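call fold target=Glutamate dehydrogenase
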Amino acid sequence: MDNPPKVSPIRAMQEMLLASPVFKQAAAQYDRAAEFLNLKPDTRERCKWPKRLISVSVPVRMDDGSLQMFFAHRVQHHLSRGPVKGGLRYHPSVDIGEVAALASWMTWKCALAGLPFGGGKGGIACNPQAMSPPELERLTRRFTQEMIPFIGPQIDVMAPDVGTNEQVMAWMVDTYSVHVGSLEPGIVTGKPLGLYGSKARREATGHGVAFLAMLAIEKLGMQVKDATVVLQGFGNVGSYAARNLSMNGAKIIAVGDATGAVYNARGLDTRQLMPYAIEHRGVAGFPGGEAIPAEELLTLECDILIPAALERVITEENASKLRCKVLAEGANGPTTTEADAILEARDDIFVIPDIMCNSGGVIVSYFEWVQALQHMSWTEKEVLQKLESMLAASFREVQTLAKQKNLPQRVAAMALGVQRVAETKELRGLYP
């Protein structure tokens, strides 16, 4: 019997990642930007693939005395522009392809915003809703211990994501600090204020989504106070985006999450909906609106549609049915490659691509990191002013390039981010 042809480890890794639909989507977006930029072949390959893929098993003693093994991943896409930055998610569907895609998007997001970071992402395949606080603490501390050789304030700085929060970050700070023998608040961002977190970090991503959606509405010649809004996802991002838009006069007509969807043509009262969703762990049953099928949410007629949950929710099947004027991507990768092609052909929806739209979180994470390193603090007003200034600058840059080169918004945003990483790679050269 003939021996099968040998496959190099690098090629095997590439094939494994491309087998993931999420990473394949991220790679297709990158390839399109790289093609537009006409990158040198060597630079194009170096920028595309992640530098490090780290997978670890995490043994945890459960409350009933049993031992359970969890599998965790951390991908560090690029360290050329500084330490990698990106969230840590706890979710049952976490896999290495998803994590690698999210790390890639974070690289372009940081570069587009002008931050001195590369992209990173991590995740543990678990169901945090089914775990007790002591079990989550043991999981977090053991994962942090397993990651210590690969993290640090100048190497890899994690942050909250789906299924994680300030408390998880606090446990990580403590575990790492015990290891090094001194308090190191710069090891993560999204910490509680009592551990040198930043004011406005919790609402930063949602605030930024709302701010950019309002810029887009005004660019279309509309008034924010007349705008109607639909949100898919009402966690940290969706709820604060809704609050900010409501405060500026927009009408939130529908909201949905994993528990269901609610609708009110006269507008949902977000001041009541936010505490209700926290108490009931979802929006289903909210008395200020009527229940609607979740599958109808994305195709409701509105001015601003905000997908703020997980990736790949706008697909080839529903893209032609969207009835919004602005698509503000609060989630990472919510629009598939096939859906993108449909939206471009329609040319009647102003798309705010995810790497710009949800960058408020990483921008304020950068502020938090700087404050921790310099042992200083800024007021909430200062943080939000700096955030809006940086978002507005990115918005202008993307609009300018899109208009000059007749590019879709996503390609323009990706091209700006990819170009900055490519320039850094070429300036630094290749170490022998």
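return ok
The two ends are 40 Å apart (CA to CA). The mean pLDDT is 95.
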